[in-house]
Amino acid sequence: MQAFEVSAPHAFAVGDQPEPQAAPGEVVIDVAYAGICGSDMHIIHGDNAFVRFPRITGHEFAGVISAVSDGVDPARVGERVCIDPVVSCGRCYPCRIGRPNVCSAMQVIGVHRNGGFAEQVNVPASNAHRLPDDLDLDAAALVEPYSIAANVLSRMGPQPGDRLLIIGAGVIGLTLLQMARAIGLEEITVTDILDERLASARELGAGHTINGRSEDLEQAVLNATDGEGIPLIADAACIPAMLPAMLRMACPAGRIGLLGFSPTPSDLIQLEVIKKELTLVGSRLNNRKFPEVIEHIAAGRLDPKALISHRIALAEMPGAIDLLENHPEQARKVLVKISS
Ligand code: MN
After folding, report:
1. Is 126 a residue whose pLDDT tops 70?
2. I need a labelling partner for 210 at 20 to 30 A (CA). Which of 68, 89, 173, 275 fits?
3. Which residues surround ligand 1, an ion (CB under 5 A)?
4. In DSSP terms, which residues pair with 196 in a beta bridge?
């Protein structure tokens, strides 16, 4: 079968690979579509500490079950599915308290084990979520990025009527915007430094956008809230140096959701956290958010196709990586069509 493999940092190619087999409890997926994510770029750069090379990457994908192992209902062959990449052990402390997305022995599909930039991939049967008949496989490949948004929002405890500030209008910022609207938040501000991205945010329903390069972000936020600050701040830009500004922009009792994976320290002032009793939460991957995301898409409350800017073939992946590397402002989600 054909697959996109990263053999070492900065070394990748599309080529022939052995066909995967379903181990006990697993199914084989014929992949239809897979999305390219910023974290795939980190793997290619060699700055993901978890990945072991060589690796077939890709953790955002959907397809059709083509084979099952013993112990999996054979009726699942032919089922249209999308794949939750979080494979957890079920025994460690976080698994026991219902937090499998930070499992101590986690195996992320496309990072620790082979992923979806391939004609076929084997995954645990329980990670393959059945799709409603009218949910298209291209849209279903975007369930994973929405699950990131759903997870950080649930960690932040939104209350009805809360204002939300989203920092960064890349794909994750835009999934956050759509997901926040889907769960009923109405006053959403998005900031970025690229006007093209802010235009996307307005198109998708941001009430207010702020270009952090040409405007003073903190002042704009304080002006817009009569000096009070904002209760919900989600960081989809993942720039550690912005954390102090987030503390200042948050209102008392505010909640700040962090998604960045940077090892760079941030200057955090305890007084800011304590006097406003702020909550800072980390959010990693997703904690069983696939069913609710699938439901929102099926009900038309999320619009995955609005996030797709490019549709390419597997063989075109090296060129797409070049585009994402050098012209990120020209791309939203790049979707790889593998079969259909
Ligand atoms: Mn992703």
Report:
1. yes
2. 275
3. 37
4. none
Residue 214 and residue 123 in one domain: no
Does pLDDT of 340 surpass 80? no
> How much distance in Å is there from the Cα of 145 to the middle of ligand 1?
5
Nearest to 176 by CA among 206, 208, 131, 211: 206
27 CA to centre of ligand 1 in angstroms: 22
Same domain, 48 and 136: yes
Ligand 1 centroid – CA 228 distance (Å): 34
Query: Does residue 26 form part of some domain?
Result: yes
Cα-to-centroid distance, 248 and ligand 1 (Å):
29
> Is the same domain home to 136 and 150?
no
151 and 131 in one domain? no
Q: What is the CATH number of the domain that holds 202?
A: 3.40.50.720
Dihedral sign from CA coordinates of 296, 299, 302, 305: positive
Q: What is the pTM of this model?
A: 0.96
Is 232:157 a contact under the CB 8 Å cutoff? no
* Interval between CA 37 and ligand 1 midpoint (Å): 5
- Say yes or no: 124 and 180 in one domain: no
Question: 277 exposed, middle or buried (CB, 10 Å; 0-12, 13-18, 19+)?
Answer: exposed
Residue burial 233-264, b: 16+ Cβ < 10 Å; e: rest: bbbbbbebebbebbbebbbeebbbbbbbeeee
**Ligand 1 centroid from CA 69, angstroms:** 27
Residues 61-69: what's their mean pLDDT? 98
User: Are 81 and 151 in a shared domain?
Assistant: no
Using DSSP's 3-state secondary structure scheme, residue 199 falls into helix
The count of domains in the chain is 2
